[in-house]
């Protein structure tokens, strides 16, 4: 009999510690497959499987493309790869980032929702911003179960709060109670299971379907005035129930919070570039002034010194703006 035996877990800042706590409370004979997406830097070397394997509960691994899914296993998305699931198998994808991340929680959750429907359980743990909210909404819409860590317990409450505000979640629990609930659900039969016939295994398929639906008027999608921080393309504004998202034609996707965060980063990079150009301009003008002095061109020397002072003043003002910009930004996520 079919049970709730496909568990998707998403976490970000503080996620390694929280996930370890959760896994330590699961039995070694849990009759479910667990899939994990945690934000890693693109070129990071992940030792998360080794950390979880030291707990001696469920074996953990970074899967390979095409691996068969087995119960009692933990499959962790490797750095710089999306993890997709379809009936019975795992797929890895180096496609467009979502919410600035690869792996992204939304891509994992969405693929599991389409492949397994009511068998799926989505769990959002600690993290900043809101990756995972849209994916959890899809799990819920496809008949799955949505569980969120209690924000009061989470090391970073942003992701749990975002999910609670946007999704009609089934449970808001502390980690120890999440573990108990997952055990209970893995033993609970599912009645009237509907077959899942519209699996989506790769990001390209999802992007193509969304684009086709927008072009045919089947989805509410309008070209926004915003450009994609990754590729510079036009971002389409998409509405999914009460959740608004943005996606470009290449497939980069953003929630509102993630887009704002990326725009902050883009603005800071642009300001630093301008600051560097002004300092270089001042240095070059002073060099030209020195050359004019050696050649006894006093008027040229004065002009170059004036231009150098002007550039330095502008650079100082820009440095002030940069300091204020950095103070206004939220603190970056801490990677365990």
TrEMBL record:
Q: Which InterPro entries match?
A: CheB_C, Chemotax_prot-Glu_Me-esterase, Sig_transdc_resp-reg_Me-estase
CDD domains the record matches: CheB
**Tree of life domain:** Bacteria
Is Cell wall biogenesis/degradation set as a keyword in this record?
Answer: no
Major enzyme class: hydrolase
The catalytic activity, as recorded, is: [protein]-L-glutamate 5-O-methyl ester + H2O = L-glutamyl-[protein] + methanol + H(+)
Q: Which GO terms describe its molecular function?
A: phosphorelay response regulator activity; protein-glutamate methylesterase activity
Q: What is its EC number?
A: 3.1.1.61
**Catalytic residues in the record:** 12, 39, 131
Annotated ranges, domain CheB-type methylesterase = 1-184
Q: Biological process GO terms, please? A: chemotaxis
Print the keywords alphabetically. Chemotaxis, Hydrolase
**GO CC annotation:** cytoplasm
Protein name according to UniProt: protein-glutamate methylesterase
């Amino acid at each position: 009999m079919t049970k709730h035996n496909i568990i998707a877990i998403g976490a970000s800042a503080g996620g390694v510690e929280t996930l370890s706590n959760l896994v330590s409370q699961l039995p070694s004979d849990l009759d479910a497959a667990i899939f994990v997406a945690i934000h890693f830097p693109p070129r990071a070397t992940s030792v998360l499987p080794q950390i979880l394997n030291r707990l001696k509960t469920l074996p953990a691994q970074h899967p390979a493309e095409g691996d068969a899914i087995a119960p009692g296993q933990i499959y962790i998305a490797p750095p710089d790869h999306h993890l997709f699931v379809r009936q019975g198998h795992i797929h890895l994808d180096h496609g467009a980032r979502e919410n600035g991340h690869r792996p992204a929680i939304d891509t994992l959750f969405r693929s599991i929702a389409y492949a397994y429907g009511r068998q799926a359980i989505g769990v959002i743990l600690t993290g900043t911003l809101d990756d995972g909210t849209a994916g959890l909404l899809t799990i819920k819409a496809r008949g799955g179960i949505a569980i969120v860590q209690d924000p009061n317990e989470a090391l970073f409450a942003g992701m749990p709060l975002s999910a609670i505000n946007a999704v009609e979640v089934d449970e808001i629990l502390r980690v120890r109670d999440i573990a108990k609930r997952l055990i209970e659900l893995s033993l609970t039969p599912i009645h009237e299971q509907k077959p899942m016939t519209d699996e989506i295994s790769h990001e390209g398929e999802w992007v193509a379907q969304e684009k086709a639906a927008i072009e045919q008027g089947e989805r509410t999608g309008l070209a926004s005035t915003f450009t994609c921080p990754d590729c510079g393309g036009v971002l389409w504004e998409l509405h999914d129930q009460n959740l608004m998202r943005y996606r470009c034609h290449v497939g980069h996707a953003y929630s509102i919070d993630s887009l704002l965060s990326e725009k902050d980063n883009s603005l800071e990079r642009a300001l630093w570039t301008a600051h560097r150009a002004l300092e270089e301009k001042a240095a070059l003008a002073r060099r030209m002034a020195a050359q004019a002095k050696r050649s006894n061109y006093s008027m040229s020397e004065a002009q170059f010194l004036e231009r150098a002072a002007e550039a330095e003043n502008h650079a100082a003002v820009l440095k002030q703006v940069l300091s204020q910009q950095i103070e206004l930004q939220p603190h970056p996520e801490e990677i365990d």
